[in-house]
Write a structure and sequence with these properties.
The chain is built from 5 helices and no strands. Helices cover 47% and strands 0% of the residues. α2 packs across α4. The protein is elongated and about 70 Å long. The termini are far apart. By secondary structure, it is an all-alpha fold. The model has no long low-confidence stretch (mean pLDDT 78).
Protein backbone atom coordinates (compact mmCIF):
# COMPACT_ATOMS: atom_id res chain seq x y z
CA UNK A 1 0.00 0.00 0.00
CA UNK A 2 1.41 3.35 -1.00
CA UNK A 3 1.11 6.36 1.21
CA UNK A 4 1.16 9.84 -0.07
CA UNK A 5 4.54 11.43 0.57
CA UNK A 6 4.75 13.73 3.51
CA UNK A 7 7.22 16.55 3.87
CA UNK A 8 9.69 14.24 5.69
CA UNK A 9 9.72 11.56 2.95
CA UNK A 10 12.13 11.81 0.03
CA UNK A 11 10.40 10.42 -3.07
CA UNK A 12 13.10 11.51 -5.53
CA UNK A 13 15.71 8.92 -4.44
CA UNK A 14 13.60 5.76 -4.99
CA UNK A 15 10.04 6.68 -5.95
CA UNK A 16 9.25 3.11 -7.14
CA UNK A 17 10.37 1.36 -3.94
CA UNK A 18 7.40 0.20 -1.90
CA UNK A 19 9.30 -2.10 0.46
CA UNK A 20 12.93 -2.73 1.39
CA UNK A 21 12.93 -5.63 -1.12
CA UNK A 22 12.12 -3.29 -3.99
CA UNK A 23 15.00 -0.92 -3.28
CA UNK A 24 17.91 -0.96 -5.75
CA UNK A 25 21.00 -2.92 -4.75
CA UNK A 26 24.16 -0.85 -4.27
CA UNK A 27 26.70 -1.41 -7.04
CA UNK A 28 29.36 -2.50 -4.53
CA UNK A 29 27.19 -5.45 -3.47
CA UNK A 30 26.94 -6.97 -6.97
CA UNK A 31 29.46 -9.63 -8.01
CA UNK A 32 30.60 -8.73 -11.53
CA UNK A 33 33.32 -11.37 -11.79
CA UNK A 34 30.99 -13.85 -13.50
CA UNK A 35 32.38 -16.76 -11.51
CA UNK A 36 29.64 -16.92 -8.93
CA UNK A 37 30.10 -18.48 -5.52
CA UNK A 38 32.96 -20.91 -5.16
CA UNK A 39 32.61 -24.15 -3.21
CA UNK A 40 34.58 -24.46 -0.03
CA UNK A 41 37.95 -26.23 -0.49
CA UNK A 42 36.83 -29.18 1.61
CA UNK A 43 33.79 -29.65 -0.65
CA UNK A 44 35.95 -29.73 -3.78
CA UNK A 45 38.34 -32.19 -2.10
CA UNK A 46 35.45 -34.43 -1.06
CA UNK A 47 34.05 -34.36 -4.59
CA UNK A 48 37.45 -35.25 -6.07
CA UNK A 49 37.84 -38.07 -3.53
CA UNK A 50 34.40 -39.46 -4.32
CA UNK A 51 35.13 -39.33 -8.04
CA UNK A 52 38.42 -41.17 -7.49
CA UNK A 53 36.66 -43.90 -5.51
CA UNK A 54 33.98 -44.33 -8.19
CA UNK A 55 36.59 -44.53 -10.99
CA UNK A 56 38.69 -47.03 -8.99
CA UNK A 57 35.64 -49.20 -8.29
CA UNK A 58 34.62 -49.08 -11.95
CA UNK A 59 38.14 -50.01 -13.04
CA UNK A 60 38.28 -52.86 -10.51
CA UNK A 61 34.96 -54.30 -11.65
CA UNK A 62 35.98 -54.02 -15.30
CA UNK A 63 39.40 -55.64 -14.83
CA UNK A 64 37.88 -58.49 -12.82
CA UNK A 65 35.83 -59.46 -15.87
CA UNK A 66 38.78 -59.55 -18.28
CA UNK A 67 39.79 -62.96 -19.48
CA UNK A 68 36.29 -63.98 -20.47
CA UNK A 69 35.40 -64.31 -24.12
CA UNK A 70 34.25 -61.37 -26.20
CA UNK A 71 30.53 -61.06 -26.67
CA UNK A 72 29.23 -61.32 -30.25
CA UNK A 73 28.50 -57.59 -30.53
CA UNK A 74 32.00 -56.77 -29.25
CA UNK A 75 33.58 -59.07 -31.82
CA UNK A 76 31.46 -57.54 -34.57
CA UNK A 77 32.45 -54.04 -33.45
CA UNK A 78 36.14 -54.97 -33.51
CA UNK A 79 35.67 -56.55 -36.94
CA UNK A 80 34.07 -53.39 -38.37
CA UNK A 81 36.67 -51.12 -36.73
CA UNK A 82 39.46 -53.24 -38.26
CA UNK A 83 38.55 -52.11 -41.77
CA UNK A 84 39.93 -49.00 -43.46
CA UNK A 85 38.48 -45.74 -42.12
CA UNK A 86 36.89 -44.92 -45.46
CA UNK A 87 35.04 -48.28 -45.46
CA UNK A 88 33.53 -48.03 -41.96
CA UNK A 89 30.54 -45.76 -42.83
CA UNK A 90 29.66 -48.00 -45.82
CA UNK A 91 29.79 -51.13 -43.65
CA UNK A 92 27.42 -49.54 -41.16
CA UNK A 93 24.93 -48.25 -43.74
CA UNK A 94 22.53 -51.19 -43.36
CA UNK A 95 22.95 -51.36 -39.60
CA UNK A 96 22.10 -47.70 -39.03
CA UNK A 97 24.76 -47.30 -36.33
CA UNK A 98 26.59 -43.99 -36.24
CA UNK A 99 30.26 -44.52 -37.16
CA UNK A 100 31.93 -42.35 -34.50
CA UNK A 101 32.59 -45.14 -31.96
CA UNK A 102 33.91 -47.45 -34.68
CA UNK A 103 36.24 -44.74 -35.96
CA UNK A 104 37.46 -44.06 -32.41
CA UNK A 105 38.00 -47.79 -31.86
CA UNK A 106 39.91 -48.01 -35.15
CA UNK A 107 42.37 -45.38 -33.92
CA UNK A 108 42.49 -46.95 -30.44
CA UNK A 109 43.36 -50.37 -31.91
CA UNK A 110 46.09 -48.77 -34.02
CA UNK A 111 47.65 -47.41 -30.80
CA UNK A 112 47.01 -50.22 -28.32
CA UNK A 113 46.32 -53.38 -30.36
CA UNK A 114 43.34 -55.65 -30.82
CA UNK A 115 43.56 -57.74 -27.65
CA UNK A 116 40.55 -58.03 -25.37
CA UNK A 117 42.21 -55.85 -22.75
CA UNK A 118 43.11 -53.17 -25.32
CA UNK A 119 39.68 -53.01 -26.92
CA UNK A 120 37.80 -53.11 -23.60
CA UNK A 121 39.94 -50.31 -22.18
CA UNK A 122 38.33 -47.81 -24.56
CA UNK A 123 34.92 -48.57 -23.05
Amino acid sequence: MRRSPGPEQDTKAHPEAESPWDAPVPAAAIDHSGTGPRPAPHTALATAGLLAVVVAASFGLRVADLGSWLWIDEGTTIGVASHRLSDIPRLLARDGSPPLYYILLHGWMALFGTSEQATHSLS
